[in-house]
Amino acid sequence: MWSNFFVQQDDDRIGVAGAGQAGGLGGMKGFRGQRRTNKMSDSQEGKIKLAFFVSIVGVTLTVLGMGTEFWVELAQPKYFIGNQTCQMAHYGLWKGCIRTLWVSDIDPERTSCGPADLPGESNCTYFKFFTSGENAVIFKKTTNRNLNLAAAILALLSLTMMVMGSICIVMSLSKGVAFFLKPASFCFILSGVLVLLSVLVFHQSVLALLSSDHSIPLHHELSWSVACVGSAGAILIFGGFLFILLSLPFSPWQKCWPHKNSTT
């Protein structure tokens, strides 16, 4: 009798253990199935692609502005040299150009030489900030190498953050999960801030250039490349905030609502 009792107890324990293992495996399978099905919908994927397109516009404008030498125009008075020609300069982060224009082609109401898109002779050279560390001399005025280097480094860092943000968005779309949207938003917002800081530092370098010598009067104005880069910074920040909104749940309070119903 006692032997039958112990055998029955062992059978009951084995049955309970088997049920527990089956329940645990079923729970793990259910959890895996829930993880697999927790993917973004088609509408959310379309919104992410639209926000990514906005960010790509900012990236394109940044690359366009950074690669050109029309960040600032420095113009001498129209009749400073003579009655036939005048000189002006324009430069960007990497290269500067000295242009000789015909006075007859300039607007009669304009007192300074320019603008830079008029026909004339150009002499362009790359800056030596990054190679030998020499300052450039433009119309007897000397550039501030540290400020120019800082503006260029900030611009390159912004490009790096744009590439990282784009990689995060591509991974999010390929995996079908919204986990990478927050890192992408951080990268794009930081890249936009770095672009705007690069413009501010560059403007300070222009002011330092103008204050280095006062023998030749110059009229300066920021050109269309700065407009491209400034617009790109604002677009990148806007795109980053769009990714933040898309990474948030549609209705976060619904997560607590089923829990309250289950307790009741």
Automatic annotation (TrEMBL):
The keyword NADP does not apply. It is found in: Membrane. Its main location: membrane. One of its GO terms (biological process) is regulation of calcium ion transmembrane transport via high voltage-gated calcium channel. It is a multi-pass membrane protein. Keywords: Membrane, Transmembrane, Transmembrane helix. The chain crosses the membrane at residues 50-72, 149-174, 186-210, 222-246. GO terms for molecular function: calcium channel regulator activity. GO terms for cellular component: L-type voltage-gated calcium channel complex. Pfam families: Claudin_2. PANTHER family: VOLTAGE-DEPENDENT CALCIUM CHANNEL GAMMA-1 SUBUNIT-RELATED, VOLTAGE-DEPENDENT CALCIUM CHANNEL GAMMA-6 SUBUNIT. This is Calcium channel, voltage-dependent, gamma subunit 6b. It comes from Oryzias melastigma.
